[in-house]
Write a structure and sequence with these properties.
alpha/beta; 10-stranded mixed sheet; two-stranded antiparallel sheet
Length: 361
């Protein structure tokens, strides 16, 4: 009787540790190649942090590293070829020139690989003081058109036209992605962000597409909100939002706003995905290459990219490694002993990395 009771207790303990057993197909556990772009500014520092943690937990991936800078005129073809081959990329921030005639390499990469969906997960971390508690918002942004189409020209001296392109195909595609994400992740509400009261044709088409897709998901609540009201509601009552789907420019603004109320851009993971490829990077873009002082002092916050790399591991179907990494990072933040300056501490990047590695179980 005692032996049987002990056996039951062992099973309870085991089941408490493990949920549903993952049944791999032959070859699922083989190491996967991932293209690595360290990027500019603090990029090499935080991507180096990810590499250390991956090595410490013996994650089944290896990196093919390419050095790309935002001041290049285009993404080198060997980098594109590597991402096409590996299907997955992890990158640090690339500096985007302000003004002038040089286009953003970030935008080039998204268009070249048709990474049509940007996903940023903005959520409060246990132990990190924020203005609002229990924030858990996913911002899904159309990534290939809108104001980022890059169609600008000077009509006459002093007059510039910048074209915002919205298509039914891309609007329906991003709306479907948002609803699929909500459905597969047990999310209850999708909110479309727009300015159709002013841009009646462009944003009107985006809204029309979202409404058509929403009809196919009757179990998910669908809302609409004007972008300026959205920003006000985000900073006052963020708990009302769940999944948000937006055109290109609005998504950038909304994601950074949501990141600001949930702990800052330094802790928000994200990725850009398409039908064939995925590029994971810091979720919210504000200041993602850092300033010179942070770089010199080696005090860049690696949390956002570590959490993005956990998203990458889950994408590669290595869920247990993703869980270990996420729990280690959350544990370090909750403990509060090692935090970089943007989180109220004074730790170096390496001190945070060492603490995360120590937390790995």
């Amino acid at each position: 009787m005692r032996r049987g009771a002990m056996r039951v207790m062992e099973m309870v303990r085991w089941n408490g540790r493990r949920g549903v057993t993952y049944m791999p197909r032959p070859g699922d556990g083989e190491a996967r190649a991932v293209t690595m772009i360290p990027g500019d500014g603090i990029g090499p520092l935080v991507t180096g942090a990810v590499q250390q943690v991956m090595e410490a937990m013996h994650a089944p991936i290896f990196f093919e590293t390419f050095h790309v800078s935002g001041n290049m005129t285009s993404v080198p073809s060997d980098v594109i070829d590597s991402i096409r081959k590996n299907k997955v990329c992890l990158k640090g921030g690339l500096a985007t020139p302000v003004g002038g005639g040089v286009s953003s390499l970030n935008v080039q990469l998204r268009k070249e690989l048709d990474l049509f969906a940007s996903l940023v997960h903005c959520f409060t971390l246990p132990g990190l003081p924020t203005r609002h508690d229990h924030v858990d918002i996913v911002v899904i942004r159309e990534n290939t058109e809108g104001e980022y189409s890059g169609l600008e020209h000077e009509v006459v001296p002093g007059v510039v036209e910048s074209l915002k392109v919205i298509t039914k195909f891309c609007s329906e595609r991003i709306a479907k992605y948002a609803f699929e994400y909500a459905y597969l992740n047990n999310r209850k509400t999708v909110t479309a962000v727009h300015k159709a009261n002013i841009m009646k044709l462009a944003d009107g088409l985006f809204l029309e597409s979202c409404r058509e897709v929403a009809k196919k998901y009757p179990g998910i609540k669908y809302n609409e909100i004007i972008v300026d009201n959205c920003c006000m509601q985000l900073v006052s009552k963020p708990e009302q939002f769940d999944v948000m789907v937006t055109p290109n420019l609005y998504g950038n603004l909304v994601a950074n706003t949501a990141a600001g109320i949930a702990g800052g851009t330094g802790v928000m993971p994200g990725g850009n995905v398409g039908a064939e490829h995925a590029v994971f990077e810091q979720g919210a873009s504000a200041g993602n290459v850092g300033n010179e002082k942070i770089l010199v002092q080696k005090k860049a916050n690696p949390v956002a990219l570590l959490l993005s790399s956990a998203m990458m591991l889950r994408h590669l179907q290595f869920p247990s490694f993703a869980d270990r990494l996420e729990q280690a990072v959350i544990g370090v933040i909750k403990e509060g002993k090692y935090r970089t300056k943007d989180l109220g501490g004074d730790s170096t990047t390496q001190e945070v990395v060492d603490a995360v590695i120590e937390k790995l179980d």
